[in-house]
Write a structure and sequence with these properties.
Radius of gyration: 22 Å
EC number: 7.1.1.-
Strand content: under 5%
Oligomer: single chain
Strand order of the largest sheet: 1-2
Distance between the termini: 33 Å
Membrane topology: Multi-pass membrane protein
Helix content: over 70%
Order of helices and strands: HHHHEEHHHHHHHHHHHHHHHHHH
Enzyme class: translocase
Family: Belongs to the complex I subunit 2 family.
Shape: globular
Catalytic activity: a quinone + NADH + 5 H(+)(in) = a quinol + NAD(+) + 4 H(+)(out)
């Protein structure tokens, strides 16, 4: 105490480990650099902003390598160095690799879309990098304030990205729906955080957990209400029922690379935040969030797969809508291990299955969107019927899409999809949630139909098939995106045991 009194400045100044915060910091600095460069570059030079964005994101991914040697933390309390606001542990690094790698693939997809759709280059690349910076910050956050700030930094640029096609009324409508739904969920979540703070007197996750275990008499209802409301904002980001209605219209109205970005980054942000608040901040309230998330998981996978099953192949934008509803169904699978963590002796091992599944889903879903972006260049309506005969026109793109769809379905040769589903399924069984495992099994069978129906279109006779007639050359950035996601999916399918090992080793 005397030392603090003698040096009051030192008592409140926190040290910053710049290497630890490098990945999100590089994305943030890149966003500012792109925004400033856009002001001074002549119009003919602005196409360079795309490759610069890709380079910044690649550098941010490489910035994860020096952090692999052990856990690191910064922005710690001077009075208690063990309590920190930013932690780079295996969970953080895995999710940061997912979001930054996915943002890199989305940037490659965007290089063609920005030119074809005449999107404002500077604004687009700035918003993409800013959102990626927030998404990379969130899994490292270990206090509720930083979690909410990171969530909004990741979300706010996304609203603008969805509405950047200013001449398209659907884009503006999608952005408005996305915005109104999201800010409502955020307001509810902020109220929950304020209730939790009032009940515990802290925002740091470790101290919140301690405070909730020893809640003062008379504050139990306030604490339970705060826990429930805090989860609402993160449940929205995961597109869990009943917070899923914005998904199909938003994906259709947004530029296709933005829809691909939201399908992966939005889920990664939501699930990493949900894991942190449930497993680290609210473990003593597992009896509240465990059953709730189990019911949400069952409803979400059922609603998503049922809606995907009802998509008519000849309907305009049916391919994007199917991917949108499929992503809702996949969100249900991702929720299963988090719900199981409430009943598990080692909750870290349970949520590891969510991280492993999310990595598989990110690779194959972005690959499917990459092929959809190619087909959309010659068939703007992007119907499922537009994929008829794709194999005759572009064998490599067709085989890649078929492989991605089989991975999502969990069928050979997409072995990684099967093993990731097994990892998720086993967490439900081990936690005693047999009914949830049964619901998941039924939904996996339902999903087989629409994934296989789309795959069949690819290899059908190309008579009258727009995709086959047009023979539009696959753009180089799209080729790179398809190749990267394809190589990752094939590599994981060749060594599927890595998914199960990863699910067991990524601990909080």
């Amino acid at each position: 105490m005397n030392a603090l009194a003698q040096d009051p400045v030192r008592s409140v100044v926190q040290s910053v480990d710049w290497l630890t915060i490098a990945p999100p910091a590089l994305a943030a600095l890149g966003a500012l650099a792109v925004l400033v460069a856009d002001l001074f570059l002549p119009e003919r030079r602005k196409p360079l902003l795309g490759p610069v964005t890709v380079a910044v994101l690649a550098l941010a991914v490489l910035g994860l390598l020096p952090l692999l040697d052990g856990d690191r933390a910064t922005f710690c309390l001077t009075a208690d160095p063990a309590v920190c606001s930013y932690v780079a542990d295996p969970f953080t690094l895995a999710v940061q690799f997912l979001v930054l790698g996915a943002a890199l693939i989305a940037a490659l997809l965007s290089m063609t879309a920005v030119r074809d759709d005449a999107l404002p280059r500077g604004e687009y690349w700035f918003l993409l990098l800013a959102s990626a910076a927030g998404a990379a910050l969130l899994p490292a956050a270990r206090d509720l304030a930083t979690l909410i700030v990171a969530l909004e930094v990741a979300s706010l640029p996304s609203f603008a990205l969805v509405g950047l096609r200013r001449a398209d009324g659907r884009s503006s409508e999608a952005a408005l729906k996305f915005f109104l739904s999201s800010v409502t969920a955020t307001a509810v979540s902020l109220m929950g955080v304020s209730f939790v703070y009032a009940a515990t007197g802290s925002l740091h996750l470790d101290r919140v957990a301690e405070g909730l275990r020893e809640t003062a008499p008379g504050l139990e209802t306030l604490a339970a209400t705060g826990v429930a409301l805090t989860l609402v904002g993160f449940a929205f980001k995961t597109a869990a029922v009943p917070f899923h209605s914005w998904v199909p219209d938003t994906y259709v109205g947004a530029p296709l690379p933005v829809a691909a970005y939201l399908s992966v980054i939005g889920k990664a942000v939501g699930f990493s935040g949900l894991i942190l608040v449930t497993v680290q901040a609210f473990p003593s309230y597992g009896h509240v969030w465990g059953p709730s998330l189990a019911v949400l998981a069952a409803l979400t996978m059922t609603a998503g797969n049922a809606a995907a099953l009802r998509q008519r192949p000849e309907r305009a934008h049916s391919a994007v809508r199917l991917l949108a509803w499929s992503s809702v169904g996949q969100a249900g699978y991702l929720l299963v291990p988090i719900a199981a963590a409430a009943y598990a002796d080692e909750p870290g091992r349970a949520v590891g299955a969510t991280v492993a599944y999310a990595l598989m889903y990110a690779a194959v879903n972005l690959g499917a969107f990459a092929v959809a972006a190619h087909v959309g260049r010659s068939a703007a309506a992007n119907r499922i019927t537009d994929y008829r005969g794709l194999y005759a026109a572009h064998p490599s793109a067709a085989l890649a899409l078929a492989f991605f769809l089989l991975c999502l379905a969990g069928l050979p040769p997409g072995i990684i999809g099967l093993f990731a589903k097994v990892a998720v399924f086993s967490t439900a069984v081990d936690a005693g949630l047999g009914w949830l495992a049964a619901v998941m099994a039924v939904n996996v069978v339902i999903a087989l139909y629409y994934y296989l129906a789309w795959t069949a279109q690819i290899f059908r006779t190309p008579a009258q098939a727009p995709a086959a007639r047009a023979r539009v050359r696959v753009a180089a950035p799209l080729t790179t995106a398809i190749a990267l996601t394809g190589l990752l999916a094939v590599g994981l399918s060749g060594a599927p045991q890595l998914a199960l090992r990863f699910a067991a080793d990524v601990l909080l």
